[in-house]
Design a protein that fits this description.
37% helix, five-stranded antiparallel β-sheet, 24 strands, Killer Toxin P4, Chain A, Phosphorylase Kinase, domain 1, glycoprotein, six-stranded mixed β-sheet, alpha+beta
Length: 678
Amino acid sequence: MAAALLLLLALFAHHPGRSHAFNLMNYVCNNRTSYGINSTYQSNVVSLLGSLATNASSSTVGFATETLGAAPDQVWGLALCRGDVNATSCASCLSLAPNITFGFCRGVRDASIYYDRCLLRYSDTDFLADPDAAAAAAAPVPFGVNKDINITSNPGQYVGLAADLIGALAGWAAHNSTRRYAAGVITSGEGFATTNRDLVYSIYGLVQCTPDLAPGTCQGCLGRLRDSMPRLFNGTSGAQFTAVWCNLRYEVYPFYDGSPVVNLVAPPPPAPASQNTNRTKGSGNAGTVMAIVLGVLVVVLASAFIIYIWRKGQAKQYPKEDEDAGSLLFDLTTLRRATANFAEENKLGHGGFGAVYKGFLPDGREIAVKRLDKASAQGLKELRNELLLVAKLRHNNLAKLLGVCLKGQEKLLVYEYLPNRSLDTFLFAPAAESNPLLDWETRYRIIYGVARGLLYLHEDSQIKIIHRDLKASNVLLDADMNPKISDFGLARLFNGDKTTTVTSQVVGTLGYMAPEYAVLGHLSVKLDVYSFGVLVLEVVTGRRNTDTCFESELEEPGNLLSYVWDHWLKRTPLETMDPSLDCQAPESEVLKCIHIGLLCVQENPADRPTMLDILMMLHGQEASFAAPSKPAFTFAYSEMMNSEERDNVSGGSGNQRAAAAAAVFSVNGMSVSEFQPR
């Protein structure tokens, strides 16, 4: 028995990283009876906890009940995971229950444990016999609250709006969800002041019942918790009311995953009643005084506005770079709190710059924090470059930079959070993991959106920019799978109309770099066009440009470009289309994108279209396009780098680029180049 308990605790041991992902909100140890250590009842509890975690996480509704043993050591149990939690997180959350069971509630025969993303109860009495009756008698246990932020203005109105949201969610969860779960938001036009001096306009909430409750019982259970909200409200901005059969929570930030199913807009507060509804003889005098005051105020404001416009005309057209950077500075403490001190479970991925973490700002905004690796070759120059460039850019197809933090060895960039991460995670997923979100309509929209973003950078923004590192991993996707170009650390700014130069510092990603740039350092907007062409062909085929499997499909070693070109010459370009698209993709659009991709990767930069030409072609007919010439085959790239060096390269002296030239245009791919990953 002792061995079984030790094994369970070892398997369910509390890991430091998990504490940030699954917060313990409350627990109740019912001390009316107890059990002995190494007893049969304890053995049954050990088995029950493991069974509940397994069964709930494998259930489609994240819910399980279980009964083990025989009287007098029989034990009943229930486990429920929050409706937005996946199977892995469900199991991880429930695996924390033994910490309370054999810790704070050691020896107790009846305990309820509430985390923010799951709950569990076990008892020596059959509380499962009549869930509807138990839910009808449900009362909230002491609730967890957000003690960091208090509401300091109109607290009664605040909790009233929260209760309105919970009421709407309760109806939706009870009658429209098999999980008996709903999340939503209510927005007020009148902000609520808080202790951190921020104004709160939105309240986020969720409700959930156990899926075995009847709709009316679920709504009634949540209604009783909702009725307790005003009575137990103590000024805190967030709270969780927990009962075994139903629970609710509200906060000033979106603490749940997924889109809200309920969006409410609070009505404006009623106008204050008049102190005296009877007009008096003095009301006319008051109106006269008010008219005079308003007249003077208008004159003062008009004068101030004229002075402001005059001074603005004397100022420079653009602010200084340091002023731009200073207005976007974030405090390190804020970002540590937002990401739970860069907890592993908040890690979204890792790129050439460093790791990226998801976080929440105090005002509820979701953010993605890019943290520079201390050992990274990319440093302050690239980070400053990205900050100063992106701060000036505003376009729907560019990732929005919110700010930067430079503190000691910490170098951080803060972006808007895009829930679907980067295009490569969908595009190059194994066949068994193909995502239905990436259908042809979505792929075509991504191609079009990236083209719009590049056109803005090249021609429409107030500063002309060449991205220099466009690739699938630098195209982020929002909740609706709309593309946003990111990572401007290697971007190059041009003044005036000049957008060409020769550089001695070749940086970018092998396979996406145009040959004239990789070999000779010739930098122009046609570099981005080339990268865009490679990206388009990847989107159509679902294959990386550096895949080595092309060697078995071609008569000689090659890459994606040679593979598509070979089929183009054979008049079989549709055979290169991603097989997961089946017959859903219109052939005319697929052919159009393949044609555009081949035009973009032509060896002569002058033959490549501009981004404006490309957008016009996306609106036009493929039959009117010029015939593409043979692409600039750079199949030796994949042979020049090992698996860890295949991503980003920087530097490159004249001798190195000469060596690279020999590799790029040689058949056997021999090279002595020394490209270094960033």
